[in-house]
Write a sequence for this structure.
């Protein structure tokens, strides 16, 4: 039986990160559906299950790999963005943040020095802001 299953899964995509995320999200949708009693969440969960199994059983491994990579990158970027936001909030008391008008580089300056000239560390553009 185990061997049969292994043979069946040969050359197929299998469970990847995206599939794992989808399976968790299915549970979330089902819970929401139970509490809200709205059939749309059942439908969404069902569609997601179909999509999940389609990907797990798919033989187009390179395409599924690409999709998974997109998801992993997206998740990574979200985590990085979130960390940046957290850091920013922690520093808000003592610093101000500006974007360089030339290259969009973010510049951090200490608060409470009145009007100051800021030199962009990346492109050396100077601009004047309140600190
Ligand atoms: Zn700049």
């Amino acid at each position: 039986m185990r061997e049969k299953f292994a043979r069946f899964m040969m050359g197929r995509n299998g469970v990847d990160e995206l599939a794992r995320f989808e399976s968790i999200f299915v549970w979330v949708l089902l819970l929401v559906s139970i509490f809200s009693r709205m059939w749309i969440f059942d439908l969404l969960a069902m569609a997601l299950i179909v999509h999940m199994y389609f990907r797990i059983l798919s033989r187009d491994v390179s395409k599924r790999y690409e999709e998974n990579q997109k998801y992993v990158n997206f998740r990574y970027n979200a985590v990085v963005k979130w960390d940046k936001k957290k850091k920013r909030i922690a520093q808000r008391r003592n610093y101000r943040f500006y974007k360089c008008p030339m290259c969009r580089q973010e510049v951090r300056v200490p608060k409470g020095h009145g009007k100051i000239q800021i030199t962009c560390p990346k492109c050396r553009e100077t601009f004047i802001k309140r600190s």
